[in-house]
Amino acid sequence: MKRRVVVTGVGVVSPLGLDVPATWEALLAGTSGIGPITRFDASAFAVRIAGEVRGFDPATFIEKKEIKKMDPFIHYAIAAAEEAMRDSGLCISGDNAARVGVHIGSALGGLTIIEREHTKLHREGPHRVSPFFIPAAIINLASGQVSIRFGAKGPNLASATACASGAHAIGESFRIIQAGDADVMLCGGAEAPVTPTGIGGFAAMRALSTRNAEPARASRPFDRQRDGFVMGEGAAVLVLEEREQALARGKRPLAEVVGFGQSADAFHLTHPSEVGDGAARAMRQALADAGLAPAEVGYLNAHATGTPAGDAAEVAAIHQVFGGAATSLAVSSTKSMTGHLLGAAGALEAVVAVLALRDGRIPPTINLDEPEFDLDCVPCRAREMSLDYAMSNAFGFGGVNVSLVFRRAEV
Q: Ketosynthase family 3 (KS3) domain: from which residue to which, for each copy (predicted)?
C-alpha cells in the first residue's frame, strides 16, 4: 500500500502579500497585485509592468551579512519555508532530521545576482567577481539554504522545468513520501525574475502583455482581449507529511495530496499543441493516480497565463478530459491577480487549491470582461462552494505539463 501524504503547512510570498493570510484575503477580494515596475528604470522597455513583491525585508528572516550572499529568489524561498514550518508545527531534531527533505524548484534562478556580477566583471575586472556568486545564483541553492536553515538531512532536490518547476517539486515530493524515502518534504518554488534581463527577454519573445497604461487590468486569462502574461515574483512552500505521522503528533492536515500527473508535449519549444494533448495526458494521469472520475473534481486552478495560444490549448485539454462535466467545473486563474510567478507559479497555485478546499471558497478570475470560452471561469468575484477535490495545473516551456489533485482533509 502506498503511504498517504497530507499538507500540514503552507507559506507564501507573493505580489499580493508577504504571507498566506494576506495573499489569500487579497485573492478572495479579487485584488490585483500588478503595477508599474519599480525594481529598475523600465522606461525604455516595451513592458513596464509586473507583479512585484512589495515591502519585503530579507533582514526579517536572514542575518544582514548573509543577505548579499543570496539572490532574492532564495530570500523568498526562506521566508515562505519559515511560514510553512510555523504553520505545520513540525520540529526537526536529531531523531527525525534524516527523514525530512527539501525540494524547491525555480525556472530561472538568480537573475539579479547574475546581472550584478556580470556588470562588475565587465566594469571592474574578474578580480571583483564575488566568491559567493555561484552559490548565490544557482537554482538548487534555494533547497540547499532551506535544508541548512532547518537541519533537514533527507532528500535535497531542485526541479528546473520552467513554469512547472514548483508543481513538479510538489509532485515528486509526494512520490518520495509515498515510497518511504522520507516522512516530510518541504517543497515548492521560488522566483525573482523582475530584472532587466528577465523582462527584456520575455518581452523580446512577445510573451508579455504590453497593457502598460492599466497594469491592474493587464493580466486577463480566458478573456478575448488578452495579449500575454504579466511577470510576477515570489515563492510558495508546502510541508508534505506522511499522514499517520501527522495525526500521531496531533496535527490536523490542511488537505491531502492524492494525484500527480506529468507529461511532455514533444511539440514546440514555447508553444503548446493546439489540441492540448500533453496537458490532457497530465490531467488524466493525475485523476487516475487519485482514483477519481473527472466529475468528482469541483475546482480547477488553471495554468492559464493570458497568452492567446496557451489559454486556448488548456481549455481544449479541459474539454477532452472532463467531457460533459467541463461546463459544471469551476475553473479560475489566479494569475489574473498575481501575474505569472514562473517556477513558483505551480506551487503558489497548489496552495490556492489547498486553501479553497479548506475554506470552501474559490478565488475568481478578474479582468474577464469578454469571456472567450464556454467554461465557468468564476468571473470577477469569489464563490463559496463545498469541495471534495481540487486540481491545479502547471505547464512550461519545453512542453512540460504537471497536474496535481488534492482532497479535502478528513475531519
A: 2-408
Neighbours of 93 (CB within 10 A): 8
- Provide the Cα torsion 293, 188, 173, 221; round to 10°: 20
Q: Which three cell numbers stand for residue 405?
A: 489533485
Are the CB atoms for 168 and 402 separated by under 8 Å? yes
Contact 392, 403 (CB under 8 A): yes
Which one of 75, 103, 168, 303 is the catalytic residue?
Answer: 303
Joined together, the cell numbers standing for residue 274 give 493546439
Q: Is 377 a catalytic residue?
A: no
Q: Is 163 a catalytic residue?
A: yes
**Active-site entry in 103, 168, 319, 340:** 340
225-276 pLDDT per residue, tens: 999 999 999 999 999 999 999 999 999 999 999 999 999 999 999 888 888 9
Express each pLDDT in 212-229 by its tens digit: 999 999 999 999 999 999
d(CA 324, CA 354): 25
Residue 142 buriedness (CB in 10 A; 0-12 / 13-18 / 19+):
buried
CA–CA separation, 215 and 407 (whole Å): 35
Residues 13-18 have a mean pLDDT of 98
Integer CA distances (angstroms), 279 to 165, 301, 340, 351, in order = 15, 14, 18, 20
Q: What is the pLDDT of residue 410?
A: 86
Q: Kindly report the pTM of this predicted structure.
A: 0.97
Domain ranges of the chain: 5-248, 259-408
Please tell me the distance from the alpha carbon of residue 229 to that of residue 335, in angstroms, as a whole number: 8
Using an 8 Å Cβ cutoff, are 261 and 81 in contact? no
| Rounded Cα distance, 233 and 312, in Å | 24
Residues 348-354, mean pLDDT to the nearest whole number:
98
Residue 411: its pLDDT value, please? 63
CATH of domain 5-248: 3.40.47.10
Q: Does residue 234 come out as left (phi exceeding 0), alpha (psi in the -120 to 50 range) or beta?
A: left
DSSP-derived secondary structure letter, 144: H
Can you tell me which residue has the cell 469551476? 330
Which of the residues 75, 163, 168, 187 is marked catalytic? 163
